[in-house]
Amino acid sequence: MRQIVAFDRVSADGYFAAADGGLGWVVPEEELDRAAAQNLSGSGTILFGRRTYDMFESFWPHALDANPHAPGQHSPEIRAMAQWINDAEKIVFSRTRTEVPWRNSRLLPEFDPREIEALKSRPGNGIMIFGSGSIVSQLTEHGLIDEYHFIVAPILLGGGRTLVSGVPASVRLDLVEATPFPSGNVRLRYARRSSSPPPPGGG
Amino acid sequence: MRQIVAFDRVSADGYFAAADGGLGWVVPEEELDRAAAQNLSGSGTILFGRRTYDMFESFWPHALDANPHAPGQHSPEIRAMAQWINDAEKIVFSRTRTEVPWRNSRLLPEFDPREIEALKSRPGNGIMIFGSGSIVSQLTEHGLIDEYHFIVAPILLGGGRTLVSGVPASVRLDLVEATPFPSGNVRLRYARRSSSPPPPGGG
Q: How far does B170 lie from chain A, in Å, by closest CA?
C-alpha cells in the first residue's frame, strides 16, 4: 500500500499560509533543504489543491531557467527539488481549472476518497501533498493520510489559514520525531495512529 | 522587569481550543504535569480573558473539595496547581462581567497596553497567561509577551480556535527548547526576538 505524506511549513501559531496565501514568512534552513532533497526519491506522485498548484506552477517549471542576472544562483537542493517536482506525477483537484499544462499533471474535478484508495493500492512510490488545505482536510476526514510532517517556523504570523478545518472528528497521532534545527525550525513528524481506523464507508 | 509567559496546550494542527472551547482533547502526561508544577513558584500573577477565566473559575476553586466518591483522587501536581492558582493574583479582562468573586481576582474592563507595561515594571514574580486568545493577540501585537510555551498534543482537532489572530505584523521568535515527552506531547518554548522591538506608541 502506498503511503500518503502531508508535508507543510507551519508557523508557531498554527498557520500554514498567511492571509494572502503567501509563504514569505518561511525561515530558511539549509540543513532542512538538504534533508528534504534526500528524501524526494521515495515519492513519485503529488496531490494538489488548486491554489497550491497555481503557486507551484508559477515557480517550479521555470525554476532552473537561465537567469542572466544571477548565473549559478541555484543550490543543489533547489535543483534536485525542481527536477523531481517537474518529473513527478501531479494530480490536481479543481472545479474551476480546465487545463493543467505543467508536465505530468492530471486534473480531477471532484474529490472522491475511493479514487484515492485506488491510487494508494496501485504499485508505486510514496505520495506527497504540500499545502492544499481543503484536500488535506478531506483526506484527513477519510483517514487517508499516513504521515504528517510539519516544519514549525520560529515565527508568529498573527493570522492566516489553518491546514486542517471542517473535519468532524479529531484524529489521534503518534509522534515519530521532534527535531530542532539551527535556525529555530522544528520538524515534527506524526503517523496516524493505526488503532483509530478510518470511518466506514466514505464518499 | 517582570516577564510575561503565555502557556498553551495546542493541537498538532494549530488550535488551542476546540470549536466549543473545550479541552477534552488534551493528551495527559504525568511528566509534563510534574515539570509544570515545579515551575509555578516563579509566577505570582495570571492574566485572563473572560472565557478562560469562566472555565478556570468553574473548576479550580473547588478542585480540592472532598469528593466522597473518589477520596484521595488528586495527584500532588494537581494539588500544587490548585493551591498556586487559587492564591495567585488574577487579572481578568472583561466588558461583560461585573464581579470576579474568585479569590485575589481583579476586573479590568478595557485592555490598555500601558497598564500592562506598568504591571511589568513593578517588582514581583513572573506573569502567566493561559488560553485567553484575544488577550494574547493584543499582548503580542504590543510586543508584551516575552516567552511562548506551547505543549503540542499528538492530535489533529480538525477545527477550532487559533491562539493568535488579528495581529497585523508577524513576530520573529527564538526557539529555546523542543522537548518530546513519552505520550507524544512536544514542549516548544520560544522567546520573542529582542531585535524586533515592539511597535512605538501603542494604546
A: 4
